[in-house]
Amino acid sequence: ITGASCSGKTTLARLLVQRLARTVSVEHVEQDNHRRRSSHNRLPDGRKTWEGPQFTDFAKLHASLLDARSCCACVVVDGYLLLDCLPETRQLFDHILWVECSKELVATRRQARKNGRGDFPTQCYRDAREYVEAAVWPAHEAYVSRVEGMSACERLPAGEGEDQRLQRALRLFDGWLGERSHAAAPSGGGGVRARGARQYIECPYKHKEAAKALGARWDAGQKRWYAPSDLGPAQREALLAAAR
């Protein structure tokens, strides 16, 4: 799922994952979780920018996608520059959804971030709207020109609501889900992912040593701990204690 910053990509991805998880094992991989620093962080006028493909570690994104594919029937990936990924990553995509959005709506949503303070380099711009005009939208237009015609996309119009977009996206999976009904997630299920013969479920605790002692696995791409679902009563109590 790709499109401009603040176009609704991640919201759609999360809704899609929730719905698909009723039927199959599924994981969500986000480009935003694979950010990196870059020395190329200035516009021609010298002001800072956080946009552009130089701020994403696409090799790490590819590794996260392969990792997710190894243990899930379906992977949903989203990113504002997703088609700038490595060619070998792009070849893994079965469907590409392009979420369309106007510059005005992007600016409104960027300004609403961080409790209304806006999401922009504060030392260089008056507000998020100025940042969108100078950096975000030009980066999006450059992205469009780079990837246009590269891959067939299902375009989701800007005027559609979240439910309309979700239903349109789900239609792409109708035949696919029927063929793979045997890959349904275990009961209790959304968020369950396979690791060889064991099952792992997402868990909220952050205590590193307790997590490792329980055989949990840290997913660097998703920045989450996963614990085996076959924990015994004592182990589950230790898990809860670590969470506290």
Automatic annotation (TrEMBL):
Lineage top rank: taxon: Eukaryota
Entry's transmembrane regions: none
SUPFAM superfamilies: P-loop containing nucleoside triphosphate hydrolases
Listed InterPro entries: DUF5710, P-loop_NTPase
Residue ranges of every copy of the DUF5710 domain listed in the record: 198-231
One Pfam family, short name: DUF5710
Residue ranges, annotated region (Disordered): 28-48
Designated name of the protein: DUF5710 domain-containing protein
